[in-house]
Amino acid sequence: MADAASRLKGLLEQLLGTPVPVRVRAWDGSLAGPPGAPVLVVRNRRALRRLLWKPGELGLARAWVAGDLDVEGDLYAALDALAGLIWDRGEDARTLGQALREPEVRAAVRGLFRLAGPGLPPAPPREEARRRGHLHTRRTDRRAISHHYDVGNDFYEIVLGPSMVYSCAYWETPEGGDLETAQRDKLELVARKLALRPGQRLLDVGCGWGSMAIHAAREHGVSVVGITLSQEQAAYARKRVADEGLTDRVEIRVQDYRDVRDGPFDAISSIGMAEHVGAERYLAYAQDLYALLRPGGRLLNHQIARRPRRDESSYHVDEFIDAYVFPDGELAPLGTTVTQLERAGFEVRDVESIREHYGLTLRQWVANLEADWPRAMRLAGPGRARVWRLYMAASALAFEQNNIGVNQVLAVRTPDGPGDSGSSGMPLRARMWK
């Protein structure tokens, strides 16, 4: 079909009611759109069938993961240009049903179906998670964690670098710098906020590949129990602990936080784990951690937050993230998290937003992935590598544009027995860890 790009661009603009902000390169080699704009590559008609049979973000995600859609040039520029059409249409955007009542929209949809050609869309890419059972049971949480983290330790080494820290780093300047230094500074920031001292016990919930546990034991002399639901992470972390000569001070377990019974601990770190807990279980999560702390013990909860909506009942999880990245993950506004921690009995003593730091971190991870792209595709498969590249690049923009944030919340289990003074044990001048 001659000049498919012009036809596709025109039909999309008729459907969306706004100019398409990128150039479109179609399967016939034709090109249409504003000169100098990022190029969206539609490799085949199958991409259109995916979008028409599953309109919205999930259809786009399936086409991207399968390789039916691609971007030429700067991925960040393309995502930024497309954000207004995909993610930023707002709470008042018209629904598909409303749009289809408009004659010009119905005509555009018919034209797109003709352009897509006959046939049903192919099955979703195999990288797509299938939801089974109730949310946030021990079994479904293990399955969700395995989907995300058991991709292969060699793949994560490419993305994360030697630190193997899969959470926001802590940078000195807006220009970034050395990722390993920034990750070490983040681990040290957490340790200082928790006031770790030799002889104490630390519980690291969602310990990942063991970086926080090793740092706390090596640099601060504490005994650490690190727990994860990922078998691959645990095996990797145990080897790192042994290589550091810390097996007498660090124990790595494959264990759900709900099953930890050997408290009390002097401190608990939960870094990038609480996003997996879910809104319905969050209060119970906070209560479980509260019960595992000794009176006077501290919790450092490092967690991504979304912006609150005018109507919270209308909030839906991100379809791409839920299907391909973090199955069953849920983000909550910062105020909701603080409220739940307080309801569980904690006294919240400090909240630090480090949103800009995550944008810098994600850009470093994307650069690492792109620098070793052929090997990453061999290790994780092309579809999975494409998932991670899109998710991390889009997330970097989301943090930079203040669509989501990340916060460290320091909370204390204040003494609550008979005759206790209620002292938090915190210094009078806040943020002495600086």
TrEMBL record:
GO molecular function, one term: methyltransferase activity
Alphabetical GO biological process terms: methylation
Annotated segments matching region Disordered: 415-434
CDD domains the record matches: AdoMet_MTases
Name of the featured protein: Class I SAM-dependent methyltransferase
Keywords assigned by UniProt, alphabetized: Lipid metabolism, Methyltransferase, S-adenosyl-L-methionine, Transferase
Composition-biased stretches (Low complexity): 415-425
Organism of this sequence: Streptomyces flavalbus
Family classification: Belongs to the CFA/CMAS family.
Keyword flag Acetylation: no
